[in-house]
Structure formats: C-alpha cells, structure tokens
Amino acid sequence: MNSIKDVAHHAGVSVATVSRVLNAKGYVSEETRKKVEQSIRELNYKPNEVARSLFKKQSKTIGLIVPDITNPYFPELARAVEDTASKLGYTVILCNSDGKVEKEQHYLDVLMQKYVDGIIVSSNTLSEDQVNALQIPVVSLDREISKDIPTIVVENSKGARLATQYLRNKGRSRIAHIRGPLAIVNANERCEGYKQIVSNEPWFSESYIVNGNFDMESAIEATMKLIQLHPEIDGIFAANDTMAIGAIKAVHKLGKKTPEDIAIIGFDGISLSKATTPELTTIVQPIYEMGEKAAQMLIGFVEEKPVENTFYRLDVQLVERESS
Ligand code: RIB
C-alpha cells in the first residue's frame, strides 16, 4: 500500500506539502495542489486515518456504549445517535457492554486508542472518576452517572406514577410491579414512582414487586411467580416494554387473559410494542429525541460550540393500546 512518502516522491514535492494538501491547511500553489492530487489518484493512496487524527487531533469519530444491543430500546437509541452524528460528519463506533464495568472500561480504553473525539455512554456502572479520567467530552444518555456529567434522561418516576394511576383508573385494584435491575437508577426511579401510588393501600406489601432484568425471559419467570403468590393481581406495571411483553406471555401460559384478567402496561415505547397481541399500552420515552440530543450535545462540546443546557430530563407520555 502506498504511503504519504510515495505520493511526495511521485509528485516531486515534500511530505509536508502533501500533508498540507490532505489537510487543506497552509499555503499550496494551485499547480502543486493539482500535481499532488494527481499522484494521490494514480497511486490510489488512502490516508492513514489514525495518522490524520494524530495530525489534526480530531478523528471525526465518536463512541457509543450501550448495555444490551439485544434489547430493542438500544438499537432505536443508536439509530438516532448515528443519524444525527452522520449528518454532522461524524462516524459512530457502537460498543455493547453487557452493563459490566470491566467491559465498559475496556471499551473506553479502546475508543481512546482510536482517538475518538467524544463518547456517549448509557451505563450505571461507570463512575464519575472513570469518565473524567478520559479528558474528552462525554455525554451520559438514558442513565445518570452524576450531576457533573452532561446527561439526557427521562421523567422515570413521573412515567411510573402515570402508569400505575392509569391502571387504578381502569378499575384495577391489585397492581404489581416488575422492576428493572437494582443497580440501574432509572429502574429505581420507576419503582419509587409505582410505590408512591400504591404503598399506602391496605393490601400493599413488597411482595407485589418482583425483580426483572429488563429482558423477556426474566419477566416471564417473575410474572409466573408473582401470579402464583398473588392470584388476585389484576394489573401489572412492567419497568420496560420487553418485560411487559414477557408478562403478557406468562399470563397466557397461566391460562389467563390480558387485559380481561390482568391489565399490563410497559415503559419505553419501542416499535415492537405495536406488534404484540394484544398491542402493548406503554409509557413512551422520546427515544429518537434522546439520541439526537445526545449526539448534538456531544459534538457541540467536541467542536467547542456554546452548549446552553447540559442536563435534560425529557417528558414521557402514556399511549393506551389493547393490553390494558
Ligand atoms: O428497555 C431497556 C431499558 O433500559 C429502558 O427502559 C431504558 O430506559 C434503559 O435504561
């Protein structure tokens, strides 16, 4: 493969001149520029992106770390980040961390070695120190790491209160909650929102809350246990749509009907929630807007543009469908 030296030799100029042409920096006469471009074409020279980013101290690349690419929420979020970054001239490197801090730290190291200009991270295991040690712009998306890190999240507690109150308004009197993982801040906020609505009810006990892992399998198992323990349940608020879909499956497996016997509401508003039977009532997060804002904010930092707001808690809305 030809190098920048081969191009310089072929064009009869110095390496520095070729570099000035490649980076459109510094003076180069029109005649010389044409000669260098001709040599680049004839030698089919491809600049080494790492070398360019070292020279320009900018790679026009950002990293995006998400915990689970098999959960439909994250591909929809990544789509918004990639659309927006691409429009602004940036490439996105997508990393799947399984929500494990050692894997997240590994990806941070790899992204730094690739000279990314900034990183968007959806994580609840990275610490503020780990993020600040990077010395490049970082935006925390969907899950808050600290108030000092630019963040975009949603009204998790409000959405949970909306969901639980909605089930009550639909006449459901024994409402359970399938909560997300204990280590995830938005799962805790949603659980608190649910408890604000039902914890003063005479029937309520913590046994109406079961642990899920934001995935379908854990929700199927949790719902089966929940209904065997509390057959009187007539409403379930699941902390995300994937678990709500699992709950619908479990109710069916137990020979009960949704919503007739048990009304179910989820949280996220993933496209799949419109494809289930019954279609899922859910609390819709502005997923695309979240990814778009995160990419715009991060690239604003990278390009040292004024960024007026570094903390967004975006609103959510209840969308009623057949499962309730
Ligand atoms: O469905 C995945 C969940 O994890 C979503 O609720 C989202 O908020 C993320 O935190």
Outline the secondary-structure elements:
Layout: H1 4-11, H2 15-23, H3 30-42, H4 49-56, E1 61-66, H5 73-87, E2 91-96, H6 101-113, E3 118-121, H7 128-132, E4 138-141, E5 151-154, H8 156-169, E6 175-179, H9 185-198, E7 209-211, H10 216-229, E8 235-238, H11 241-253, E9 263-268, E10 281-284, H12 287-302, E11 311-314, E12 317-319
Parallel strand pairs: 1-2, 1-3, 3-4, 4-5, 5-11, 6-7, 6-8, 8-9, 9-10
Antiparallel strand pairs: 10-12
Bound molecules: alpha-D-ribofuranose (RIB).
Question: What labels would you give this structure?
Answer:
single chain; 324 residues; alpha/beta; 434 Repressor (Amino-terminal Domain); Rossmann fold; 3 domains; 6-stranded parallel β-sheet; 6-stranded mixed β-sheet; 12 helices; 12 strands; 16% strand; binds alpha-D-ribofuranose
User: Taking all residues together, what is the mean pLDDT?
Assistant: 93
Helix % is: 40-55%
> What are the low-pLDDT stretches, counting only 5+ consecutive residues below 50?
none
Ligands in the model, by name, code or SMILES, are: alpha-D-ribofuranose
Cα shape = elongated
Sketch the major β-sheet: 6 strands, parallel
Strand order of the largest sheet: 2-1-3-4-5-11
Q: Under the CATH scheme, which class of the largest domain?
A: Alpha Beta
Counting DSSP H or I runs of 4 or more residues, the number of helices is 12
At CATH level 2, the architecture of the largest domain is 3-Layer(aba) Sandwich
Protein structure class: alpha/beta
Count of separate structural domains: 3
If you consult CATH, what is the topology of the largest domain?
Answer: Rossmann fold
* First and last CA, distance: 62 Å
Number of E strands = 12
